[in-house]
Specification:
779 residues; eight-stranded mixed sheet; five-stranded mixed sheet
Length: 779
């Protein structure tokens, strides 16, 4: 093999698909040149919208006077639910329980009642405050305790998972314990808030620019409220300034309001709420209350688990069904439960309807499982890591591979992940040193924890596991790529472009990434469930495959060679003994009338789910990881520092290691915020008081671990035929932050010489840590 052939082979093997290429918009983010919807040049005659929000948590509307609103200078139109041309509903699941504008009943403080359209945004916002609305107050409850005390209805039918004989085995277990854990919610706090611009077209057509993770749903909802078919609605998304699940369904109302006003007035309309309104009127991560009973033996091996997962869902169902389902799917974390009974309880509350958030219920379920392990460890006086390892899922044939929902765990690498991290983080030596330190330290106490992650990848709604892509090659050899995934900063566009560049063996800058639009790829799924690269990468690969097959057939015929003699090399094509630059090859194919465009499609294989029976294979594969965190707490104030975190995370064969590393680091810090600093609080009138940066604390750069070591498991390769044998990286690393809460718990437990489980709830704010310390002093 000569040197040039060897270099070609190296390029093909490495390829752009597994390279650490920069994010396509990274330089634009840094320089401020990345265009978001609010940066798009405004159309002539653009109008601005504002929301008129309820100031009651639960009440009947007895009278409404909008005359002062309409009379305000610059106001063009004021409309209510009665003015909606189609159906006054923006529910994402067909439940018809989420009115676009409340008409006779308000069910949370901050619910939109009317909309104002004005010449300027300032005029619209000022006018919206002039409404006179009379209410008849009704009983309200804003939290899980209130919902349970008032016999609150459920927003959707709950799910139950059962396997084995949990009642019998609980009774027969050598040791038993009961407990309860509170898990807080979380605000998405994307940098770019919700925004939509609607531009009216001729006949019934309308074009909407929306900051959304689900353009096809926006298309459906806009058609729904305007009473027009989906083919009249075009939705465009170039990029979002963050999404995290908060833009999966919550953009519906802003796009719908803008479209209604645009079609009514014949002028473009923009809705961009300020941060307070955004936080008050849109959903968050679900709060959970977990009640559990555990049966286990003297070694710490779990025999039976019985747990109920109650969730604050808000006033409507939104995505609470699948969120609470996924919490149950991950209530096992990385552990085998021989006998198990799990039930969800999706409770209605008089708060904004909670929605998708990175992990989608999985973090809450997994956190509960780690509490189970912690409880057992303290009850037995053991290191929680030893109890974790004792209860890990086994390898095929061990009899310890079946999940509570009856899916076999066939690709379990968690023992290797944990063993490797335990060694590289020097966990055992550091834990011994920490125990010695705590013995001699009067006020500062330390803790350390190593926790695993096992996260299922796929939408649990089987139909969503499909994607399309559209690929064109132009005469000059440049490539146009469009697919159904949306870019929210996670690097999806870059990864799918890498797939395409790798397929044709061309430089990445030859691939043009274009805005996601319903006009090019129809019936797309939300960019969610960590499946963006899996689905859209495979769809793009399929489109490239079709075009390549045509090109190979053309070359074989033209040059009279076998198909195997047509080889795509870096930026050129070898046909027999002849090498042709890629652009020249494409031009010749064009003149030979070869079709240079294809629509690719992909659907995830092997998955199926029966919710009613609680059985099936909802996940195509699992992603794994582990983190080890050391903390220091001040027992006088409850304040703490995160001294060090070590992470080893499994992304299969990474499509882009640099982007994946960023996703792992960012997910960990966001999870850290959820478990430590971010606290949602409603007052006794049902008002969200943590509705702005001044009252809601996301993590700062100074909150990150002082020593932060992150590695990808480079030896891992997905056993399933995913794109490039990669694994999803969006949601799984979020749960790595559980090690922070567990480490804080150990530090608190040291105050009572580790005799009892501190039962530290989340978020573990300094106040909660201090209260837990005081409880330990009384043990």
């Amino acid at each position: 093999m000569d040197k040039s052939t060897f270099e070609d082979r190296k390029a093909i093997i490495a390829g752009p698909m597994h390279g650490s290429l920069r994010h396509d918009s990274a330089h634009k983010h840094v320089t401020g040149t990345a265009d978001y919807i609010d940066d798009i040049p405004e159309p002539t005659g653009l109008l601005h919208g504002a929301l008129g929000l309820s100031d009651r948590a639960h009440a009947e509307i007895t009278a409404i006077d909008l005359s002062a609103v309409a009379a305000y200078p610059g106001v063009v139109w004021v409309f209510t639910g009665k003015d909606v041309p189609g159906v006054n509903d923006v529910s994402s699941n067909g439940s018809h329980d989420e009115p676009l504008l409340a008409e006779t009943l308000v069910q949370f403080h901050g619910q939109p009642i009317f909309a104002v359209i004005a010449e300027t945004r300032d005029a619209a916002r000022r006018a919206a405050r002039l409404a006179k609305i009379d209410y008849r107050d009704l009983p309200h409850w804003s939290d899980i305790d209130g919902a349970l005390a008032n016999g609150s209805p459920l927003v959707i039918t709950p799910m139950t998972l059962r396997r084995g004989e949990p009642e019998t085995e609980m009774t027969n277990a050598a040791m038993r314990l009961k407990g309860q854990m509170r898990i807080g919610g979380q605000e998405h706090f994307y940098l770019e808030g919700h925004i939509a611009v609607a531009i009216p077209g001729e006949d019934d057509e309308v074009t909407v620019w929306s900051s959304t993770q689900h353009p096809s749903e926006i298309q459906h909802i806009v058609g729904h409220v305007l009473d027009i078919p989906s083919n009249a609605v075009t939705v465009n998304v170039r990029r979002m300034g963050g999404g995290f699940g908060g833009k999966e369904t919550q953009g519906n109302q802003f796009a719908a309001l803008a479209a209604i006003a645009a079609k009514k007035l014949g002028r473009a309309v923009k809705f961009r709420p300020d941060r307070d309104e955004d936080m008050s009127a849109t959903g968050k991560r679900h709060d959970f209350l977990v009640d559990y009973e555990l049966g286990f033996d003297a070694q710490g091996r779990i025999h039976a688990v019985d747990a109920t997962y109650a969730a604050r869902c808000g006033f409507s169902s939104d995505l609470s069904g699948p969120v609470t389902d996924r919490a149950l799917f991950h209530a096992d974390s990385s552990y085998f439960y021989p006998h198990v009974h799990l039930t969800s309880k999706p409770l209605k509350t008089h708060t904004v309807s909670n929605t998708a958030f990175r992990g989608f219920g999985g973090p809450q379920g997994m956190l509960g499982a780690e509490r189970f392990i912690e409880e057992i460890a303290y009850a037995l006086g053991k290191d929680p890591l030893d109890v974790r390892k004792l209860n890990f899922y086994g390898q095929p044939g061990s009899g310890r591979t079946l999940t509570p929902y009856n899916q076999e765990v066939e690709d379990n690498i968690i023992p290797r992940i944990v063993e490797e991290l335990e060694e590289t983080s020097e966990y055992q030596a550091r834990r011994n040193a920490i125990i010695a330190f705590n013995r001699d330290s009067r006020y500062i106490r330390k803790g350390i924890a190593l926790t695993p992650v096992k996260f299922g990848i796929s939408f649990t709604m089987t139909a969503f596991n499909q994607a399309g892509a559209l690929v064109h090659i132009y005469q000059d050899g440049s490539i146009h790529l469009n697919h159904g995934g949306t870019e929210m900063g996670q690097g999806l566009y870059t990864k799918v472009a890498q797939v395409l560049a790798d397929s044709f063996q061309v430089d990445i800058d030859r691939v043009k990434i274009t805005a996601t639009t319903t006009a090019k790829v129809p019936n797309t799924s939300a960019t969610a469930a960590s499946s963006g690269s899996d689905l859209n990468g495979m769809a793009a690969y399929d489109a490239a495959r079709q075009i390549k097959e045509r090109l190979v057939a053309f070359a074989a015929e033209k040059w009279d060679v076998g198909s195997a003699d047509v080889v795509f090399l870096p930026n050129r094509v070898r046909v027999g003994e002849t090498e042709i630059p890629f652009p020249d090859f494409i031009k010749q194919a064009y003149f030979a009338r070869v079709q240079l465009s294809a629509a690719g499609f992909y659907k995830t294989p092997k998955i199926h789910w029966d919710r009613k029976a609680g059985r099936g294979t909802p996940f195509y594969y699992f992603a794994y990881g582990a983190s080890c965190t050391e903390v220091s707490i001040d027992t006088l104030t409850g304040e703490y520092l995160i001294d060090r975190t070590d992470i080893l995370h499994d992304v299969g064969r990474s499509l882009n290691p640099a982007i994946d590393m960023g996703q792992v680091e960012g997910a960990f810090v966001q999870g850290l915020g959820w478990l430590t600093t971010e606290e949602l609080w409603w007052d006794d009138k049902g008002r969200l008081r943590t509705h702005a940066p001044s009252t809601y604390k996301i993590p700062l750069a100074s909150d990150r671990p002082k020593i932060f070591n992150v590695r990808l498991a480079e030896w891992s390769e997905n056993a399933e035929a995913t794109i490039g044998r990669s694994k999803a990286v969006g949601e799984p690393p979020f749960m790595l932050a559980i090690s922070v809460l567990e480490a804080l718990s150990m530090a608190v437990a040291s105050v009572a010489d580790y005799r009892v489980c501190p039962r530290l709830d989340a978020p573990a704010t300094p106040e909660r840590v201090l209260m837990a310390v005081e409880r330990m002093k009384r043990v």
